């Protein structure tokens, strides 16, 4: 008899908890509003990711000599302080309204407070996908010579 009462009480307790609308899982999976950033911030993030990718690739090549990379301008950057990037500063404004190609002087500030300067070349092309015109952007890093 005690087992029956315990079983019924447990079922009522679990049934009541399952109907709680304020559960943690409901709060976690609610849609968030889309985040919008400016064009300059988007290109800054793109440039920073490209630089960090270059640094990571160079570290891989030094640790694993068998690691092969296609020869391109990346090897010509001559970054002196290849560390984790703390920040980047774009010295030239990003104005790409009519231009499809733009060189931007970029200062890389590393976590150890040292810095390098490179040129970030942004190339934009119009691509049509499913009848919709989309702008594709590509960043090529180049050595900066004063």
Automatic annotation (TrEMBL):
Protein origin, superkingdom: Bacteria
Official protein name in the record: Uncharacterized protein
């Amino acid at each position: 008899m005690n087992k029956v009462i315990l079983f019924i009480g447990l079922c009522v307790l679990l049934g009541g908890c399952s109907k709680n609308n304020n559960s943690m899982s409901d709060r976690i999976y609610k849609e968030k509003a889309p985040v919008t950033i400016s064009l300059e911030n988007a290109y800054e993030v793109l440039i920073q990711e490209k630089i960090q990718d270059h640094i990571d690739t160079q570290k891989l090549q030094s640790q694993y000599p068998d690691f092969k990379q296609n020869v391109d301008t990346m090897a010509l950057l001559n970054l002196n302080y290849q560390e984790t990037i703390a920040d980047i500063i774009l010295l030239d404004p990003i104005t790409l309204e009519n231009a499809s190609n733009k060189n931007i002087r970029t200062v890389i500030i590393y976590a150890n407070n040292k810095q390098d300067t490179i040129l970030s070349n942004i190339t934009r092309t119009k691509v049509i996908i499913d009848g919709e015109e989309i702008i594709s952007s590509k960043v090529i890093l180049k050595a900066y010579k004063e």
